[in-house]
Amino acid sequence: MADSEWLAAAFEEHRDHLRAVAYRLLGSASDADDAVQDTWLRLTGADTSEVENLGGWLTTVVARVSLNMLRSRRHRGEEPVGDSWPGSVELAVGAGVAAGPGGGTAAGPAGSPEDEAVLADSVGLALLVVLDTLTPAERLAFVLHDMFAMPFTEVADVLGRSTDATRQLASRARRRVRGAPRVDSPDHAADFGDFAALVALLDSDVTLTGDAFTVPSGRPALLHGADLVAKGAATASARAEHSQLALVDGAVGIVFAPAGRLQIVLALTVSPERRITAIDVIGDPDRLRRLRLAVLPG
């Protein structure tokens, strides 16, 4: 067998493990696939003649690639975008609330929605939500050590920090994970049938934004404050029958698709304190086509 064939075969033996690590770090099947592909490219360009543990080497590489992606994602997301319920936007416009001025793949999700839903279900939606509130370093320390039993010395090497500092990161992340509410419980607000529970999760300074396609006036709208957003959520409760929990670009959100036709997507921003701080209502067909969506099993 040629060296290239041996390398390819060896990589395939570790592919599932690498994808599992990347998915828990990134929360997106398509991003995880990108990280695994990048790891393969790095492998083909590296001198591995002195590598004794190829699996460990590959895990370290995919972790570093994922960490870079997490940091890049966090940087891009620094500008608040917020997510919203259509009913909230309609209420805002009707009440005269001020309205502001007006990547991905082609149409449809980047990967298989069924595949992503299975992945999310296997990891646990509650855990995915909480992991999304951690810093990149906290997330990597927790995932690699607590979920994949990587020694802290090796995790520290990936992060470029001391072993003690890495232990502290994992400990801080562990406390957040253990203290998190179960968002995948049928009686929890994340089921979005219980709007009273949903409202209870709103941050007092929550911001709700909606693009022009979600508002009857055709103008982008903005709501600020839990009271206004809560009223909008109550107005939107009639849509619950046609709304489902979903992953929206790897984060928790809601899709409104009556008769199976996607009309509205709500992307939720959750704070480290596990409060909903922003809701972005997306109805623009071009924006909808660029989203990576995976409807989760009820």
Quaternary organisation of the protein chains: single chain
CATH architecture of the largest domain: Roll
CATH topology of the largest domain: Nuclear Transport Factor 2, Chain: A
- Radius of gyration computed on alpha carbons: 21 Å
Number of helices: 12
Instruction: Report how far apart the termini are.
Output: 48 Å
| β-strand amount | 5-15%
- Form type: globular
Please tell me the total number of domains.
3
Query: Major sheet, described briefly?
Result: 7 strands, mixed
Compute the average pLDDT: 74
List low-confidence stretches. 77-110, 181-194
Reading off the top of the CATH hierarchy, the class of the largest domain is best stated as: Alpha Beta
* Helical residues, percent: 40-55%
**Tally of strands:** 7
In terms of structural class, how would the helical and strand content be classed?
A: alpha+beta
> Widest sheet: strand order?
2-1-6-5-4-3-7
Order of H and E elements: HHHHHHHHHHEEHEEEEHE
Outline the structure in words:
The chain is 50% helix and 14% strand. It is built from 12 helices and 7 strands. It has helices spanning 3-26, 29-44, 54-76, 86-94, 113-123, 125-131, 136-147, 152-159, 163-178, 195-200, 226-236, 285-290; strands at residues 202-210, 221-224, 243-248, 251-256, 264-270, 276-282, 293-295. Helix 1 packs across helix 3 (54-76), helix 4 (86-94) packs across helix 11 and helix 7 packs across helix 9. The longest helix has 24 residues, at 3-26. The chain is globular, with a radius of gyration of 21 Å.
